[in-house]
Structure formats: C-alpha cells, structure tokens
Specification:
Structural class: mainly alpha
CATH class: Mainly Alpha
Shape: globular
Distance between the termini: 26 Å
CATH superfamily: Glycerol uptake facilitator protein
Oligomer: single chain
Radius of gyration: 20 Å
Largest sheet: none
Number of domains: 1
Number of strands: 0
CATH architecture: Up-down Bundle
Helix content: over 70%
Length: about 300
C-alpha cells in the first residue's frame, strides 16, 4: 500500500511534462472555434475575477506605510485566476502561447491551427474580461468606491501611461515566462493541491514584480475607462495590449516552449536518443504517464 502511494504522489519529470504539454497543444489546436470562443470567454472572466479580487484586497494600503507589500498581496490573491483556468477548465491565450508552439515545433500541428486557436481564444478572453470589468466591477459599484477606484487608477495609469513600449514588451516577456512555467509545473502534479501549489509562486511572483499580462490588462485598463479614471483612454489600452501580446508570445513560445522542446521534445524524434535507456528506467523510477491522464 505504501508503494502505491509513493508512485501516485510522485511528480512527473520535465521530459514527461514536455510530452504532456505537446499533447495538450495538439488537442487545443483541434478545438472547434465555438468551443474555443466560449472557453476563452471563461478564461478571460476568471482572470478578471482575479484582478477584481486583487484590487479589493490591496485597496487602501498606503505604500508610505506598507512599502511594497500591497503588490505582494495583489499577487497572492491574483493566483485565483490561473487556478480557475487550470482546475475548472478554460482557454487562456497566454498559456496556449507555450502549448501550441511546442506542438508546432514537434510537427504535431500546423501554423493555421495555431493561428485559429489564438484568434478565437483572444476574442473570447477579451469578451470575458470586459464583461467582468463592466457589469461585475463597475456597474456593481465595487470598483467605483473610493479606495478601490484609487487602487485601480494606480494600476491602470502605470500600465497605460507610465510604461513605454519597450518596458511593456519586456515586462510581458517575463510575465508569460512565469505564467507558462506555472502551467508547465501544474502538469507535474497528480492532485489538485499539487497543481495549485505549482501555480501559486510563479503567478504571485510576476504580479508582485509588476510584469504585464495581456489578458489581465484587458480587465484593468477597460475597467479604469469604464470607471472614469482620468487620462486613460482606449488608445492607451490598445498600445498596452499590442506590446503585452507580443512580449507574452515571446515569453511563452521562446523561453518555455522553445527551450523545453530543445531539451526534451526533439529527442523523441531522434532515433539515436530513443535508443538510449530512460534515466527513470535505469533508476527504477515510474514509467512516463500517459498525456491523456493529466487534467491540467
């Protein structure tokens, strides 16, 4: 009985994760457009819920007193968004920016399939984000109260006005590197608790450091516009979206999908590498898990 528990609780190796991630990317590329759109709507709404929670929790914490702790609190509760996406199930563009490119690098899918998924999920994420921003954040009065409105204004002004194009792009690279690593590590866990723990630290970290997530910004910036935050317009929002989108794509497709494909994915198509025994088999470790068994 003890032996069975040890095997069940064991984490997957990076090589096993790479196989699972490529399989998930292949599945996502085959997702019908309507399901990608609806699931993308849910993904955008879940990230927006996390943004709304982050604002309400950190509102009223004066940096003169609290220092940088408000950003830590913001990041801590913002993890709700990706937990909902991974555990409940939804399509999130930023996560797909690693999974589909990995499947593409392994020649399991073609570029049109990637473009179709990205397009439908992007539209869905945007619709879900602005739905929560307008109806559940502003029209409810939650974000128009004094303290939350001030906090929203600080976040939106930083992302929409203060940051220049290069800063947005580079912050977005760092952001999605961490977001995709959170999803990557969630594949390693066999249980819900392990997946949540794998998600927590990378997501908390990117928010606390002030990085830019395009879907999160699809909530923060429109919410600020709907709430009447001064000096924030749709031009500012679009500028941020474009450079955050590009940076997120590089962070996911290059620094996660590209590097792990180089380390593990291409070996599966190399006859010389396949002829070598698995490190886990030599050590008596568990055999690689089937990608279809993982729920992340």
């Amino acid at each position: 009985m003890g032996g069975v528990r040890t095997e069940t609780m064991a984490a997957k190796t990076p090589k096993e994760i790479a196989a699972i991630a490529a399989a998930r990317g292949t599945e996502k590329a085959a997702l019908p457009w309507d399901k990608a759109l609806v699931s993308g709507f849910l993904g955008g709404a879940y990230i927006a819920f996390a943004g709304l929670l982050a604002i309400t929790v950190s509102a009223g914490l004066d940096p003169q007193t609290w220092g940088t702790l408000p950003t830590f609190f913001t990041g801590t509760v913002f993890t709700l968004g990706l937990v909902l996406v991974v555990i409940a199930g939804a399509e999130l563009l930023t996560g797909n920016m690693a999974l589909l490119p990995l499947a593409l690098y392994e020649r399991k899918i073609r570029l049109p399939g990637v473009a179709r998924n990205f397009s439908m999920v992007l539209i869905g994420n945007f619709l879900g984000s602005i739905f929560v921003a307008y109806f559940l954040s502003v029209k409810t009065g939650i974000l128009t109260a004094e303290l939350p409105l001030a906090r929203l204004g600080t976040i939106a002004t930083g992302k929409g006005v203060t940051e220049d194009s290069a800063q947005i792009f580079l912050r977005a690279v760092g952001c999605n590197w961490l977001v995709c690593l959170a999803i990557w590590m969630a594949f390693a866990a066999e249980d819900v608790g392990g997946k949540i723990l794998a998600i927590f630290f990378p997501i908390m970290g990117f928010v606390a450091m002030g990085f830019d997530h395009v879907v999160a910004n699809m909530f923060f910036l429109p919410a600020a516009i709907f709430a009447g935050v001064p000096d924030i317009g749709w031009g500012d929002a679009l500028h941020n979206f474009v450079f955050a989108l590009l940076g997120n794509l590089v962070g996911g497709a290059v620094f996660v999908a590209g590097t792990y494909w180089y380390l593990y994915g291409r070996d599966r198509h190399d006859p010389a590498a396949q002829a070598e025994p698995e490190a886990g088999a030599e050590a008596g470790g568990p055999s690689p898990a089937s990608p279809s068994r993982d729920r992340a």
